[in-house]
Specification:
About 35% of the residues lie in helices and about 25% in strands. The longest helix is centred in the N-terminal third of the chain and has 35 residues. Strand 2 and strand 3 form a beta hairpin. The protein is α+β, with helices and mostly antiparallel strands and about 110 residues long. The chain is built from two helices and five strands; from the N terminus they run αβββββα. The model has no long low-confidence stretch (mean pLDDT about 85).
Amino acid sequence: MSSIKPVRFSKAELEQVSVAVKRMEEVFLKSANAFYRLYQEIAEKMDWNPIESAPDEMLILTKIHDDNGVNNVQIMRKSKRLWFIGDSNIYCYYTPTHWKLVKINELHKM
């Protein structure tokens, strides 16, 4: 059995790692903020799409739009041919007719 020897870093090396981690955090936050703004912009402009084009395993806004008008507007998730309410395992007994991207602030209402 081999024993693992602890690695010792100098104070200068630890400082370099700390600076690098802080820089990585800044880059990540800028990227995340840019992604958030882009996603929100796309979601705002996106029209309703036929349900056949809905992505799998992604929270999306769905609705039924038929001769009776618009109803059952809610956030759902498609998994293969099944539809689930929100991010739960509760199966829905109908198939929506349309979908579009959910605005991120609507996800907080779930």
